[in-house]
DNA sequence: AAAATAGTGTTGTTTTTACAACAAAATGAG
DNA sequence: CTCATTTTGTTGTAAAAACAACACTATTTT
């Protein structure tokens, strides 16, 4: 099967063999689609019934308001999903946009089938549900972490909270972030130029160091 | 059973009869504990292995930083859970505090047992897993909604985003919020006095009206 | 009912951030 | 390599928020 080499290394299909993968793909009514850079994979307000799984490339989950302000909620890459919220069946429409950061290959799965497979005879249902749950928990954790960052009041505190988290996740005070400066400002919901000033202040104070997307948190406070 | 009347109306035990409830309680090694107002139910940094289910009262999920700034992440009440993140087994310790807002009765369930019951013979495992998943999805949604609020830059925008959400959830422009003004400021991560000023400005502009915890969103923009 | 506590609104000052506009540097496409 | 585009840093100004201090009101507690 064309996509098995990709699927087998995703969390959701982990531990499933090719035959099982194929059976599940049929069961979930999967379809594949490619997206160009900056193309919208999901548009806010869409009432789709599918969950997306990113198989190639990466995408930004965006929140855009009426005034055109863009806020990056989170970045999703290979093996990550978007749209799990739908599994609840209650959601009328998406509350955010999903926009390709680069050329993307996305697999869509029917949310209802994914959730209700328990009632089917599908052999690996327990596994998938467990994997789904695990992904959902990861998602939850990421959102909570972000809330802890955004609940800081100043740009400085937000930056430091974010860098601290990155360093912890990396288990290293040297780390690379997935954002350029403009994106980082959108991610932290702060003004880009004010952030730029603050970043360079932190650098001159010897608290952090950075070059491009490489950062070094020298003092955690 | 003493607690069945409470448990039967929680989401997690919905559709389980008294006998099944009892079996599951045994399986999950449940224990009960009461907490006074302002008492910490869970302390940040605790490496507990239990999930909490609120059976009476309500509690705040708090994020407190080194400087003593308090931010309310979310409010949990009857039937709601805290600590699902643990189900992933990867979490070393809690990242937030759970503090009783009033006198509380809390049921603790062993996270590992909850998650791995599939492998047991427990009759209702499918149901519980589905309920758990559903709660996790709710949780996810709440966190995303809050992120959408906190990603607004000004206090005014945060207030309006929050009120808009409340009105939508209530399906009514008149609604009651679970916070007093001080708590609302902590929830939105803004300065209380600045918020107070902004609130009264919005009122004088005829955009909102409020009295105590009762609000009316007159113009949604 | 009185006293203590918690909640709310107001003000002025200081600090921080947003915003806008620009210049320089880096990147990418042809 | 060159040109166009994107990214980054800088500055000054205006706006907003934080902070602190206080007065007043409402709510509990005793």
Describe the protein.
- The structure is a homodimer of 221-residue chains.
- By secondary structure, chain A is of the alpha+beta class.
- Chain A has two domains: 4-144, Jelly Rolls (Sandwich); 152-217, Winged helix-like DNA-binding domain superfamily/Winged helix DNA-binding domain (Arc Repressor Mutant, subunit A, Orthogonal Bundle), CATH 1.10.10.10.
- Helices cover 38% and strands 24% of the residues of chain A.
- Chain A has seven helices and eleven strands.
- In chain A, the strands form three sheets. In chain A, strands 1-8-3-6 form a four-stranded antiparallel β-sheet. Chain A has a four-stranded antiparallel β-sheet with strand order 2-7-4-5.
- In chain A, a hairpin with a 5-residue loop joins strand 4 (59-64) and strand 5.
- In chain A, helix 4 runs antiparallel to helix 5.
- Chain A is elongated and about 60 Å long.
- The mean pLDDT of chain A is 86.
- Chains A and B meet through helix 4 of A and helix 4 of B.
- The structure holds a DNA duplex (30 and 30 nucleotides).
Characteristics of this structure?
four-stranded antiparallel sheet, Jelly Rolls, 2 domains, alpha+beta, 24% strand, 221 residues, Arc Repressor Mutant, subunit A, homodimer, DNA-binding
Kindly report the oligomeric state of this protein: homodimer
Task: Write down the CATH class of the largest domain in chain A.
Answer: Mainly Beta
Distinct helical segment count of chain A: 7
Reported for the largest beta sheet of chain A, the result is: 4 strands, antiparallel
**Mean residue pLDDT of chain A:** 86
Q: Work out the number of β strands of chain A.
A: 11
* CATH fold descriptor of the largest domain in chain A: Jelly Rolls
Helical content of chain A (DSSP H or I, runs of 4+): 25-40%
- SS strand fraction of chain A: 15-25%
Which term fits the overall shape of chain A? elongated
| Major interchain interface with per-chain residue totals | A-B, 42 and 42 residues
Low-confidence stretches of chain A: none
């Amino acid at each position: 099967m064309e996509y098995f080499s990709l699927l087998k290394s995703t969390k959701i299909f982990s531990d499933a063999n090719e035959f099982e993968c194929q059976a599940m793909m049929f069961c979930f009514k999967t379809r594949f689609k490619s997206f160009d850079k900056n193309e919208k994979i999901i548009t806010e307000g869409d009432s789709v019934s599918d969950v997306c799984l990113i198989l190639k490339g990466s995408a930004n989950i965006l929140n855009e308001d009426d005034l055109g302000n863009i806020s990056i909620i989170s970045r999703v890459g290979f093996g990550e999903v978007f749209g799990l919220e739908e599994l609840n069946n209650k959601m009328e429409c998406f509350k955010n946009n999903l926009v390709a950061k680069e050329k993307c290959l996305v697999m869509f799965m029917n949310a209802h089938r994914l959730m209700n497979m328990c009632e089917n005879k599908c052999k690996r249902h327990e596994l998938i549900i467990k994997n789904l749950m695990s992904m959902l928990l990861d998602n939850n954790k990421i959102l909570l972490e972000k809330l802890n960052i955004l609940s800081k009041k100043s740009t400085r505190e937000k930056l430091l909270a974010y860098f601290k988290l990155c360093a912890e996740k990396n288990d290293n005070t040297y780390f690379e972030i997935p954002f350029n400066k403009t994106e980082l400002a959108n991610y932290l919901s702060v003004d880009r130029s004010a952030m730029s000033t603050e970043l360079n202040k932190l650098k001159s104070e010897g608290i952090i160091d950075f070059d491009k997307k490489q950062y070094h948190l020298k003092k955690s406070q």
